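Known limitations

Files may contain more than one protein. Parsers should not assume a single record per file. Below, a two-record file is shown to illustrate correct handling: read the sequence, read the token line, then continue until end of file.
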Amino acid sequence: MMDKVFSSRYFMKVAPLILAAVSFILLYFRKQNTIETPGLFSINFLVFFSYALFFAFGWILYFQKNYLTRFRDRYLYLLAIGFCFFIIKLAILSNGKWVAFKSMQVILAAIHALIMLYLIFGLIGLALKYFNKHSLIGRYLNDASYWIYLVHFPIVFFLQAALIPVDLSVYIKFLLVVTLTFLLSIFSYHYLVYQRSIGKFLNGK
């Protein structure tokens, strides 16, 4: 059944819209226009299902690798649509009067859902087009990515808190947080995880 869905010539055109519709419903019920990161250990089930949607699609796609070429062949189209919606969202957010309307939160949630899916699909296609070859650095970063995902949040939190009293441009602070978070995450991966038992647990042998 799933194989027939993926093999449909129209699947690539409607898949972003279908997944965006589900994402929008989850965002609407949470009355949010973004998927937030909960700061508690308790489970927020609407956030959980929002992320589970992407996980489930990726899991299904893993067993349908022969259809990945559809992302590659249409990556420019997908990225263009995603960036267009992104520009529209920036235009709305830049106008305080528009954001004040309750109905605008619904529109922003729908736009955000479309941005997510079109850019995700487009970036997958871009990667398949230009980075689909063996690379030792790429393999290393790929293996490190899960660890970075797990540890980056507390690092970002503490760096942001440390920079609050510092008199610097918000853009410089952003670059510092991103750069230092990446460096600290890679450092911890190389010396605590790489070729160790925890690395085998996270990534396999």
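...continuing to the second record:
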Amino acid sequence: MSILKKFFNRLNNSPLTYIEKKDKRQVITLIITILIVFSATKIYQVTAAKNTLNLSPKEEALALQRLDSLNVMYAQKLKSDTLNRLDLYIANRYDTLKLFKFNPNSASEKDLQKLGLTEKQIANLINYRKNGGIFKTENDFRKLYGLRTMQFNFLREYLCFNDSTAPQPLSKEKTEEKYFDFDPNFLTREEMYKLGFSTKQIESFMKQKDEKNWKFYVKKDFAYVYFIDEKKYKELEKYIKIDLNKLFNGKKLYDLNLANEDELSQAGFSHAEAQNIITFREKVGYFYATWQLSDCIKYDRANSLKTNVYTCHSVELKKININTADEITLLNHPYLTKFQVSKIIEARNSKQFKHIADLQTLNAFDQKDLKKLQHYIEF
């Protein structure tokens, strides 16, 4: 200790002029810290060595065995905490399967069973191949309807697409046979997959049916589903079979835009109400929703009878051009007031309307007005 004390005193009082006294003290502090850490490490090593258990080979083997079992238990606990029940079932099942390389374009049904695919998944895969479908990449196989992400992760490294048994595309005549008669009101997920729709489109369709209570009353209604283009609709049109009797559970309902006075009377409306409905229908340019009944008859009557009628998605509404229609045409529209018409005519003398939102600048329309009017005007 005396040697260290003399060293630090000499270092602190050294005549080196280019080092300030404050810096010298920092160097001394650093050296002391290094010595303390070094001493503490040595003390710990000596103490740990004294306290180390001397296990026999048998005791050491038992300890390692216990440690392995704890690792297994931890892995199982971690798996059960992070996976839902279905994924947990899949993970446990694939732990027992012996996987092998396979080509989804040519694998037999028996091989697909050995790879852990369910009967529905196998049926979807085989149906896809029969209809001329070819799996070219991992992503193609991932899109197989009903295939879980966890299943795909287990199988992806065993996929191969380069053998000579891959099926060739079917001729045009044969590909047309993939379609079948269907009612869009009662389509199942499996049927939509067979019709060529993607998983994303199927789930979107089912969500809309559930949340917005989509109904299809005529074939053309199906063309108004957002992901069905003109080409796809033409391919499917002859296979669409709407069963209104099944849709309405045997009850007789009437098309609000086509029903005459007698048919509206059969739907429960009085003759006066039926006349008001027809008159309003002609003026407004057809109904786009049954709630519009309250715009031409009493609200309580409209609310109680609207379940006896329906409107098709594909109804062709009559529209008026807000930029060119004359004053009389605008005044005759049920959803335009005299004040609103005057504001429109005044404004279009100096500008052209390009969007429904442009009407908001006139300070004559609220959101409720625009919501109704947007279906009946064009620019």
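Parsers that stop after the first record will miss the second one. For reference, the second record is described as follows. Residues 254-310 form one domain.
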